[in-house]
Amino acid sequence: MNLNRQPAILLVGRDTPLNYLFGRFAEQSGYRLTGNLENISMAEIETVKPAVILFLSIELLAKNQALVAELSSRESPIIVCSSSTEQARARELGADYCLLHPLTYNDFQTALETVTASKRV
What CATH number has the domain spanning 3-120? Predict the structure, then answer.
């Protein structure tokens, strides 16, 4: 399969085990994973044209609030890894979906289906 034709998941954050895990999840779901940056610009996002932007933590989402505000007018949904106690804060910070720990493939699939379906409506 041509990698350029696969929809992209833009990963914001660096955590080697999580990067590997999400790379495998993305591959199994027909997506390609790109990113691994803690700071990302709008120009980089426009180059990648991600189907989904995935923040590895609430802290990274909070740190990138200017970018999140700019993304709110675009079609790129935001998923953030969080705990159940942080869900309300994640929504306040602009997340469309919270991927809760412990992370599983089924939850990842549900997150992708939920955010991509809600952006198409």
Answer: 3.40.50.2300
- Single pTM value for the model: 0.91
**Confidence band, pLDDT 50/70/90 cuts, at residue 121:** very low
pLDDT (tens digit per residue) in 15-51: 999 999 999 999 999 999 998 788 788 888 999 999 9
Work out the number of other CB atoms within 10 angstroms of the CB of residue 56: 22
